[in-house]
Write a sequence for this structure.
């Protein structure tokens, strides 16, 4: 969520970066942060930002991700998500549902998204998918629960009570079993969220995502999958995630990721069978100092309800 309240963000980053808080007080400062949750294993959670992804695997899929960010840092972000996606046979249509719970510090967000995708075949095994997203998000901020350094501070004397925020999004995705390329905007409508005193506290703004990836068959044993996810939102830092993974014996994924000027990480995923997959990733921030937290842990579980994909048996899903 984009912050207009400068002091809460300044105190947060003072603690994270090890600066003295008064350095921010003596100069004008406005803090801006990533509004939507981020994931290291985003390829298993793409539905949260790309409605055209709904149903492209050709099977009914359940995926859950739990992310504990900056472990050891008081009030650090914690995110949990569940996505359900599958095709409607005979109609070239995919449907999806995603539920996201995100909290950090005094902020709480809960979102429910419904996704619709219509797919057109361009040539054999290549499709163009168009997606629509409808979202209802709840938001609240309990500022009065905070312990403030320069108390009393009028900025934190009022909470943001539970707000219901509707939104919508669109997306397009060109894909096959071995590659994908797309763009999306999961939040189109801007919103202003006000505290109990009527003063604007936060703004929800337009988001844009670009994404792509390809699977290279190196030999009978090893496959290589590079992917990228680019995120842009008004008046926030732009981020690009670069990920490279190797699939060994169609069973074990081992990879690394780099979030530009933010963090590096490792990814491990295991296909227990053609239906069930487990994943774990670990991130470490690259900005100094990193010793104020123990990194970020992310756990994933994914289940496909059938083992037949487009007429073929027991083939691992790459995207």
């Amino acid at each position: 969520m984009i912050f207009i309240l400068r002091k809460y963000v300044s105190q947060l980053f003072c603690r994270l970066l090890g600066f003295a808080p008064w350095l921010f007080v003596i100069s004008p400062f406005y803090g801006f942060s990533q509004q939507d949750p981020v994931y290291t294993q985003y390829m298993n959670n793409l539905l949260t930002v790309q409605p055209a992804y709904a149903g492209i695997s050709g099977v009914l899929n359940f995926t859950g991700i739990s992310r504990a960010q900056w472990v050891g840092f008081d009030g650090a972000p914690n995110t949990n998500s569940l996505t359900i996606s599958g095709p409607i046979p005979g109609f070239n249509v995919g449907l999806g549902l995603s539920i996201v719970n995100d909290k950090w510090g005094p902020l709480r967000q809960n979102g429910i998204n419904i996704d619709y995708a219509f797919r057109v075949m361009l040539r054999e095994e290549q499709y163009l998918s168009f997606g629509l997203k409808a979202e209802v998000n709840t938001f609240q901020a309990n500022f009065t629960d905070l312990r403030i350094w320069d108390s009393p501070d009028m900025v934190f004397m009022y909470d943001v009570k539970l707000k219901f925020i509707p939104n919508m999004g669109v997306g397009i995705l060109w894909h096959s079993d071995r590659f994908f390329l797309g763009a999306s905007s999961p939040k189109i409508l801007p919103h202003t969220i006000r505290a109990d005193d009527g003063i604007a506290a936060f703004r929800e703004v337009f988001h844009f995502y670009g994404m792509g990836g390809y699977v290279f068959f190196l030999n009978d044993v090893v496959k290589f999958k590079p992917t990228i996810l680019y995120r842009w939102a008004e008046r926030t830092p732009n981020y690009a995630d670069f990920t490279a993974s190797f699939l060994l014996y169609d069973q074990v994924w081992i990879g690394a990721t780099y979030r530009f000027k933010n963090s590096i990480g490792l990814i491990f995923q295991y296909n227990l069978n053609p239906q069930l997959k487990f994943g774990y990733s670990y991130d470490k921030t690259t900005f100094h100092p990193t010793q104020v937290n123990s990194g970020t842990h992310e756990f994933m579980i994914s289940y496909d309800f059938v083992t037949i994909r487009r007429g073929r048996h027991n083939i691992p899903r790459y995207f």
